């Protein structure tokens, strides 16, 4: 943000007239006369006019007048000021070492220390540097002022624009912020007024912050507030006024250009030339609006002001420092004024009060009393608990969707009841106000024992107690306005709206209410802290300094605002500014995601008080609960570590036995959104109906690894089924925390799903696949599962790169298209890294799958996920397709793009031991074989990459390759040769997987040259022998080759008219993502060409 500040301390007006410039030349040396390189040369009073010395220590500088003063400085040396020589001679300036700074005292952990004796990395910043302008946040004043301190501001909202702090980058524990200590107490940095800060130090490395233990792992910031000074009362008043504006304003498209680009993107003439011209002429702003929503909702700048008053003084016995300040900041969101009898504009007020008193009880005993109170209040519109949704709709609303407001006074909005007008959200949604109050007290006693007994000189005893109380209340008086959408004009030129029942009365698109609703949320905490210490610091013989510290402290943190009977127990909400596990930016995103929650959710936590992961779980769930007033936590003593989701106090059937970190964090968020009816990973109605038809009760347990990329898909699918069918319950279990269960169940692959104690599924699984297995085991009520029949122009089987490409190209031709797939992305989604997709230097399979789906959904394509095609029948020119959920679809064109899946060995024992020693994904299942001996079957790129990865986990890796030499790239083979725990055997054929009934124990290997067989004892095997075409459902209809690939011609046509194949399922050479995309497009164009020629 750019800030202009007007400092009104002297309330004077200065005028600087134009003066002739003078050129000054000089040379800067050290005390020995050696030239200094890089010394700073600046004209005093003109900080922007400066230069540095060159390799010879010389400089040239143009100054404003011949009376100017030049300041020459360099780190570690004393600054020298000289006047411009009147005779134009070259200046010679000599700088001397600044030894005084070595005797300065800096604040360190639990004390002070001279700079000369500091060995750790410590930086300090002065109070003058912090007071650079009016701001509510100390963190923003630190930006760019301390080396090694990174600040990142993720919001400009008044009162919530504090920057996240990182010491020496973000590669820190949990990406967490540093520990903040104010007067020795852990407190929120932004609750301290900048004028109250006496010293500010940062402990950057382990040696400096070691005394704080793990709490200081990300660095420590030490703040000491001002104390009274002996003398007459000194009164200081400081007033500031400033402006805030965006550094860059986005340039929005106008309606005419937007419509032209829409036509171009959709390859249609959706907007006629006449319509576009009306947008351009602005002839009818009601029916042909042209709204720049950014200009409509935002001003160019906002104001802020700050006033501070402080009084300091004292005598021999008592010294005091008392201060108070007020800060106000408005928002760049426009202010519509008090049109409803209340003001919904966004602004923020903050009041700070502090009193620090030092009392000398005796000559050796000092009593310190520090009191502070901080009161904050914010105001805003009633839509949601923050402004994220308004911001989002501002950028999502197209310029021609609707005007800001209709000329006849009616509120405008979308043509369907499926969105909002951002202006209505800002101005016509009621209001909200929230306040925070923080009371802080600190009492400390310091006893100088050395003054009582000379032999103990240098020994001091300290005792301090602090009490911090924090509470907040959010009150929202919200309403949903009634809005209309104009459809035209009558003969008199009046606007025409909907008249649904023909009664002559205009009907709104959305019927709201003018009455203000009422919602209130409260939270509060109390923290008590006790610390006692003995500190020894003494100088011997004027050169040997000895120091020691003995410390004890304890902290008690309790919840003071229970919202219900259950929450009256040991529940918690995180204190504002307390240490957080989630990134501030992520928390802001979560606040937006949870803004629309309607139900109340509770994390019902059951955890053993001594569990080593207890704190991590409570911090994570506390951070999530912080993001919505609809989410709370209840903590109960338990035997292990788990939590269950409650909705409005009732159990939902979804339980997590573990910390849903890593890939499973999304599973937790989706579970909440699904239960609230706002999830986006539910299948379509036909699949949902089959889930609801499952016969229960069904209890599912899924064992996962938090590093597994396939596990979240299974967990999220089963959680969704639990939400749809009340007879299903589901637990996610982190196998690493419940190793005894993993061992007892002999689990060697994840995800492993157990249904009422019986193994149901192992490895990657799609919603439809899991549903089919549940149907087979439990059965369904057929009366609830109604089959659906639909007709299309093109049906695409498969959702990988080839299938999505075929669907998009077909939809762009204006055809009715359905894509039937287990999931969008297909096999690609399992790929960890992709670096050969031209124009995309680097991506992941998951990212590419998301991008494919985003692109696909821009077109009118029926996406039918979570099922697969089981049967194809030819009915004349029509193809009748039956899916795994019983649906039937008809279309003259069928494009098969079902891709390929992991090839299996197809040897005795393999199927029996999948998930119990036989695995396919080293990323998912590798951790289960830590310290064990495993084999990799396959010597191609995937096999050798797997061997390299597993070598870092397993004690020994043996590679078996069927051919006489490895087929992997040379660079991979060379890397493999450097690994001491890997051995390779070529010409080796796997003939049998051997086990003991519970798990794999060995492989039977045949030497293809000698025909000799041997038994190789192993703990597991990873099969990496390539992919097999997914063509089994089509082999009775179209021609396939021996490996099962569908035979196609150069145009992707099969031997059956109207059936096409593309990508890895076909005989196209070179199975690559980019080739599959091209093949999908080619198949779609061939189908369209056949349709135009009347072939289909």
Task: Describe the protein.
The protein is of the alpha/beta class and 1096 residues long. It contains 22 helices and 55 strands. The radius of gyration is 36 Å and the shape is globular. The two termini are 61 Å apart.
Helicity level, as a percent range? 10-25%
Helix vs. strand class: alpha/beta
Distance from first to last alpha carbon: 61 Å
Q: What's the helix count?
A: 22
Question: Features of this protein?
Answer:
8-stranded mixed beta sheet; disordered N terminus; 10-stranded antiparallel beta sheet; alpha/beta; 18% helix; 1096 residues
Fold blueprint:
Elements (H helix, E strand, L loop, with lengths): L1 E6 L14 E8 L10 E4 L6 E3 L5 E6 L5 E5 L6 E4 L7 E4 L10 E4 L2 E4 L7 E4 L1 H4 L7 H4 L7 E4 L11 E4 L11 E4 L2 E2 L10 E7 L2 H4 L10 E6 L5 E15 L9 H12 L6 H9 L11 H5 L4 E13 L3 E13 L16 E14 L4 E17 L6 H9 L25 H6 L2 E19 H4 L6 E20 L9 E2 L5 E2 L22 E22 L3 E16 L24 H10 L7 E7 L6 H13 L4 E7 L3 E7 L2 E8 L7 H11 L9 H8 L5 E7 L6 H14 L3 E7 L4 H7 L6 E4 L2 E5 L4 H12 L10 E3 L2 E4 L3 H12 L4 E4 L24 H12 L4 E4 L4 E7 L2 E6 L4 E4 L1 E4 L3 E3 L15 E2 L2 H4 L7 E5 L3 H11 L4 E5 L9 H8 L4 E4 L2 E8 L4 E8 L5 E5 L2 E4 L3 E3 L29 E3 L11 H20 L4
Parallel strand pairs: 2-8, 14-17, 29-30, 32-34, 33-34, 37-43, 38-39, 38-44, 39-40, 44-55, 46-53, 47-48, 47-53, 48-49
Antiparallel strand pairs: 1-18, 2-5, 3-4, 3-6, 6-7, 9-10, 11-16, 12-13, 14-15, 16-17, 18-19, 19-20, 20-21, 21-22, 22-23, 23-24, 24-27, 25-26, 27-28, 29-31, 31-32, 33-35, 35-36, 41-42, 42-43, 45-54, 50-51, 51-52
Helix pairs in contact: 4-5, 12-14, 17-18, 17-22, 20-21
């Amino acid at each position: 943000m750019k800030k202009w500040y007007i400092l009104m301390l002297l309330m004077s007006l200065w005028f600087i007239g134009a003066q002739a410039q003078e050129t000054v030349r000089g040379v800067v040396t050290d005390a020995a006369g050696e030239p200094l390189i890089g010394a700073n040369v600046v004209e005093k009073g003109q900080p922007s006019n400066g230069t540095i010395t060159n390799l010879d220590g010389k400089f040239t500088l143009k100054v404003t007048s011949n009376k100017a003063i030049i300041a020459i400085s360099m780190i570690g040396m004393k600054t020298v000021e000289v006047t411009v020589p009147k005779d134009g001679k070259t200046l010679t300036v000599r700088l001397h070492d600044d030894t005084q700074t070595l005797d300065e005292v800096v604040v360190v952990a639990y004390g002070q220390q001279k700079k000369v004796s500091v060995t750790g990395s410590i930086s300090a910043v002065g109070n003058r540097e912090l007071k650079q302008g009016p701001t509510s946040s100390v963190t923003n004043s630190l930006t760019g002022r301390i080396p090694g301190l990174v600040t990142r501001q993720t919001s400009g909202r008044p009162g919530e624009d504090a920057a996240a702090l990182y010491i020496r980058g973000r590669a820190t524990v949990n990406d967490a912020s540093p520990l903040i200590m104010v007067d020795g107490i852990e407190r929120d940095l932004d609750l301290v007024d900048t004028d109250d800060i006496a010293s500010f130090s940062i402990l950057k490395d382990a040696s400096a912050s070691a005394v704080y233990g793990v709490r200081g792992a990300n660095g420590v910031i030490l703040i000491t507030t001002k104390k009274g000074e002996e003398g007459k009362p000194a009164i200081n008043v400081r007033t500031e006024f400033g402006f805030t504006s965006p550094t860059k304003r986005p340039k929005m498209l106008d309606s005419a250009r937007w419509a032209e680009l829409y036509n171009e993107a959709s390859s249609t003439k959706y907007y006629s030339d006449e319509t576009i011209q009306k947008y351009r002429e602005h002839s009818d702003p009601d029916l042909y609006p042209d709204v720049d929503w950014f200009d409509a909702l935002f001003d160019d700048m906002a104001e802020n002001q700050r006033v501070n008053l402080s009084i300091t003084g004292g005598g021999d016995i008592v010294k005091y420092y008392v201060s108070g300040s007020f800060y106000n900041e408005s928002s760049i969101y426009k202010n519509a004024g008090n049109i409803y009898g209340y003001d919904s504009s966004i602004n923020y007020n903050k009041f700070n009060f502090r009193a620090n008193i030092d009392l000398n009880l005796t000559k050796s005993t000092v009593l310190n009393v520090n009191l502070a109170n901080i009161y904050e209040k914010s105001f805003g519109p009633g839509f949601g608990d923050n402004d994220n949704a308004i911001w989002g709709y501002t950028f999502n609303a197209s310029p021609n969707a609707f005007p800001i407001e209709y000329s006849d006074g009616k509120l405008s909005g979308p043509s369907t009841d499926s969105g909002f007008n951002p202006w209505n959200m800002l101005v016509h949604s009621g209001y909200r106000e929230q306040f925070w109050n923080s009371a802080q007290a600190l009492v400390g006693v310091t006893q100088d024992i050395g003054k009582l007994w000379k032999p103990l000189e240098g020994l001091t005893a300290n005792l301090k107690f602090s009490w911090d109380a924090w509470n907040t209340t959010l009150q929202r008086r919200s309403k949903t306005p009634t809005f209309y959408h104009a459809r035209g004009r009558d003969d008199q030129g009046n606007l025409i709206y909907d008249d649904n029942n023909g009664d002559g009365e205009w009907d709104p698109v959305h019927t709201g209410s003018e009455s203000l609703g009422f919602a209130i949320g409260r939270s509060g905490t109390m923290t008590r802290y006790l610390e006692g210490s003995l500190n020894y610091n003494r100088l011997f013989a004027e050169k040997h300094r000895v120091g020691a510290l003995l410390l004890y402290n304890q902290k008690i943190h309790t919840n003071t605002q229970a919202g219900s009977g259950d929450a009256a127990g040991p529940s918690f909400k995180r204190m504002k500014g307390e240490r957080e596990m989630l990134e501030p930016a992520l928390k802001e995103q979560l606040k937006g995601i949870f803004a629309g929650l309607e139900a109340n959710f509770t994390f019902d936590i059951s955890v053993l008080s001594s569990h080593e992961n207890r704190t991590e779980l409570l911090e994570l769930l506390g951070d999530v609960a912080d993001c919505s007033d609809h989410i709370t936590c209840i903590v109960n003593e338990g035997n292990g570590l788990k939590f269950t989701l409650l909705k409005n106090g009732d159990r939902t059937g979804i339980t997590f036995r573990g910390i849903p970190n890593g890939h499973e964090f999304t599973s937790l968020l989706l579970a909440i959104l699904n239960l609230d009816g706002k999830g986006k990973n539910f299948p379509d109605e036909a699949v949902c109906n089959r889930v609801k038809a499952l016969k229960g009760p069904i209890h599912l347990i899924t064992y996962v690894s938090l590093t597994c990329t396939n596990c979240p898909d299974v967990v999220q699918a089963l959680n969704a089924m639990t939400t749809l069918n009340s007879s299903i319950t589901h637990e996610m279990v982190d196998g690493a925390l419940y190793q005894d269960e993993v061992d007892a169940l002999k689990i060697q692959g994840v995800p492993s799903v157990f249904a009422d104690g019986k193994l149901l599924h192992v490895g990657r699984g799609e919603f439809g696949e899991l549903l089919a297995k549940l149907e087979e085991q439990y059965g369904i009520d057929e009366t609830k599962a109604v089959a659906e029949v639909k007709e299309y122009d093109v049906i695409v089987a498969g959702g990988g790169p080839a299938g999505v490409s075929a669907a998009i190209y077909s939809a762009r031709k204006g055809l009715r298209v359905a894509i039937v797939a287990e999931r969008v992305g297909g096999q690609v989604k399992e790929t960890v890294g992709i670096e050969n997709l031209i124009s995309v230097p680097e991506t992941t399979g998951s990212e590419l799958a998301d991008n494919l789906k985003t692109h696909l959904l821009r077109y009118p394509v029926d996406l039918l996920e979570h099922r697969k095609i089981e049967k194809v029948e030819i009915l004349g020119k029509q193809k009748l397709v039956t899916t795994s959920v019983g649906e039937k679809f008809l279309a003259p064109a069928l494009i098969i793009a079902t891709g390929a899946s992991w090839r299996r060995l197809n040897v005795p024992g393999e199927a029996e031991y999948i998930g119990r020693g036989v695995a396919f994904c080293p990323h998912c299942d590798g951790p289960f074989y830590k310290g064990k001996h495993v084999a990799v079957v396959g010597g191609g790129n995937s096999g050798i990459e797997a061997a390299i990865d597993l070598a870092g986990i397993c004690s020994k890796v043996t590679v078996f390759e069927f051919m006489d030499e490895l087929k992997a790239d040379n660079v991979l083979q060379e890397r493999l040769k450097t690994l001491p725990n890997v051995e390779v055997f070529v010409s080796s054929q796997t003939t049998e997987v051997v086990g003991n009934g519970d798990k794999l124990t060995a492989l039977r290997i045949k030497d293809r040259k000698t025909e000799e067989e041997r038994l190789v004892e192993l703990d597991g095997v990873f099969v990496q022998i390539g992919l097999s075409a997914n063509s089994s459902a089509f082999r009775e209809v179209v021609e396939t080759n021996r490996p099962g690939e569908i035979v196609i011609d150069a145009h992707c046509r099969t031997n059956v008219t109207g059936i096409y194949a593309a990508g890895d399922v076909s005989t196209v050479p070179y199975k690559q993502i980019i080739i599959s995309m091209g093949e999908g497009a080619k198949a779609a164009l061939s189908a369209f060409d056949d349709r135009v020629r009347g072939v289909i």
